[in-house]
Structures are given as C-alpha cells and as structure tokens.
Design a protein that fits this description.
Blueprint: H1 2-28, E1 35-38, E2 44-49, H2 63-70, E3 76-80, H3 98-113, E4 117-123, H4 125-137, E5 141-145, H5 157-165, H6 167-172, H7 174-197, H8 206-212, E6 219-225, H9 229-236, E7 244-249, H10 256-262, H11 266-281
Parallel strand pairs: 2-3, 2-4, 4-5, 5-6, 6-7
Antiparallel strand pairs: 1-3
Helix pairs in contact: 1-7, 2-11
Length: 291
C-alpha cells in the first residue's frame, strides 16, 4: 500500500505542475525558443521532437543529447519543442497553422545542415511528430517510442478498461498504473483545448500521410510498452508497412523509453538503430569538413 500511496502523491504533484506549467506556457509562448540547432559538421542529422512534456513548456529534456553522446557519436542535433502542447498543430505564436510552420522550419534546417542521412526521434506525441515531419520532409529514418498517432488514442472503451481495471499493473507496478490512468484525463482535457485552438479541427492523419509517400517513406522503428494496450494498438496502425518495424519493450508504462533508460539500454537502442540504417546504405559517413 505504501508504494501505491507514493505513486498517487507523484500523480497529484504532476497534475499540479501541469496546471502551473500550462499558465506559464500561455504567457510566454510567443517569446519562447521553439528550436535549438547544434551543427557539428556531421553527415548525419538527428531531429528530436518533444512530446507534451509537463515541465518547461514542452522543452525537450535534452536527454537525447546525452544518450547520443554516450554512444560516442557527434551527430548534428536539432531539438524541437511543441510550445503550445498541441501536437505541433499550433505555431509558437498561437496560430492554428502549426503543421506547415514546423514543416517549413524542418525543411529549412535540413537544407542548411546538408546532411545526407536525416533521422527523426520522438516519444509519445513527439514520436507521432517524428513520423509526420520525417515523411513530409523526406527524411531517411524514424525512431519512435510509444508514438501517439491519434487524438483519441487513450479514450476508447477498451483502452479505458485497461487503464483503470488492470489490477495486475496496479499490484506489480503502481507507478505505471497511475501514469496510464492519468493519460485519459490529459487526453480529454487536451482534446477540448485542441478544438478551441484549432477551429478547423483537422488533425494529422499520419497513416494516410505515410501511405501516400510511397517509395519516399522513411524507414521506421516503433518501440512500445508491451504492457500498455493503447501503445500496442497505436503501433499496429503502421505495422502493416514493410518499412516499419515494431518492437515491444518489457514495460507496462506509456513512457517505455524511461524504462529503457533506467536499465541503461536507451543509448544502445537508439545508436544501434542509426548505425544499422547507415550500414544498410553501405556508404561511408564522413564529416562534411573531411569530405
């Protein structure tokens, strides 16, 4: 019971932080930096898309930078944050043209960096953004952790039943239980706010965008928590494409990347995916300064 009480206290603190951070986001979004570019002269650029992070108005935690450096690589790094926390559908200034705004930004940065291998990485809504912008902008590769590809991903009856009636999760991993139980609440509130900020109510249809790309589709790998029904169902939306590989992770959480990090496996997981893609190309990857 002690672990359950601790998990519940963490949940209440997260809700309080989320409320405070939302107010901060509304006040400072116009002036916040939404992208950070680190050009290291590499022929590989990694674009990291933040999900709807609770803290720092959606700022990437920059753990990706540490993870990639731990693998001994000095790739070009680009960090995007979803300032308005609307799945990149709302631009940093609050206008409902976020998708074309961010797409133009991604294309411009890709052109300036000039890498021949471009990778998009993200988790949750950031994983969905990675698939969307990588496909739209002609990137080579996507590495997504539990991508939330649909607005209603956590609101179907079956997913709700799994979230609140999965007693095995509650007993064996209370933290995961309350994390997943929190997601439908966030989704419901977020959906209502989304429809106010995006009057046309048009969301990205990532499966359709990916399908229409044809031979221009980036290769994708989806990692998802095997014990999270919502994430498993989201992965199946793209599982039928030959370019996509779905990898279940031994995790009951929505944030399966956090479990991989705790086990010291996240760095190897990401860098191995990039290295395998580079090996498949069978081309030497040099620094542009060496070419």
């Amino acid at each position: 019971m002690g672990s359950i009480r601790r998990a519940f206290r963490r949940l209440r603190r997260r809700m309080a932080i989320h409320s405070a951070a939302s107010a901060t986001t509304r006040e400072s979004a116009r002036h916040a930096r939404h992208v950070l570019v680190q050009d290291r002269g590499s022929d590989v650029s990694v674009f990291c898309f933040a999900g709807m992070a609770v803290r720092y108005a959606g700022l990437p935690t920059f753990e990706f930078r540490n993870v990639l450096r731990a693998g001994g690589h000095e790739f070009n790094l680009v960090f995007f944050r979803d300032v308005q926390r609307m799945g990149y559908h709302v631009a940093p200034g609050g206008t409902p043209d976020g998708l074309p705004f961010y797409e133009a930004e991604v294309r411009d940065i890709m052109e300036k960096l000039g890498a021949t291998h471009n990778v998009a990485i993200g988790a949750s809504s950031g994983g969905a953004a990675a698939f969307y912008f990588a496909t739209r902008c002609g990137m080579n590769q996507v590495i997504a952790f539990n991508p939330t590809l649909q607005l209603n991903a956590f609101l179907s009856p079956r997913v709700l039943a799994d979230a609140y009636l999965n007693l095995a999760r509650l007993v064996h991993d209370p933290g995961a239980y309350f994390e997943i139980a929190f997601l439908p609440i966030v989704s419901l509130v977020g959906k209502q706010v989304f429809y106010k900020k995006v009057p046309h109510r048009t969301t990205w249809d990532i499966r359709d965008v990916y399908e229409r790309a044809g031979e221009g589709r980036p290769a994708g790998t989806i990692f998802y928590g095997a014990g999270c029904l919502a994430d498993a169902r989201q992965a199946k939306l793209l599982a039928g494409f030959s370019e996509v590989t779905c990898v279940p992770v031994n995790s009951r959480r929505h944030n399966c990347a956090a479990d991989l990090m705790k086990r010291g496996e996240l760095s190897h997981t990401i860098t191995a995916e990039i290295e395998e893609a580079l090996d498949t190309r069978r081309e030497p990857v040099l620094s542009r300064h060496e070419a």
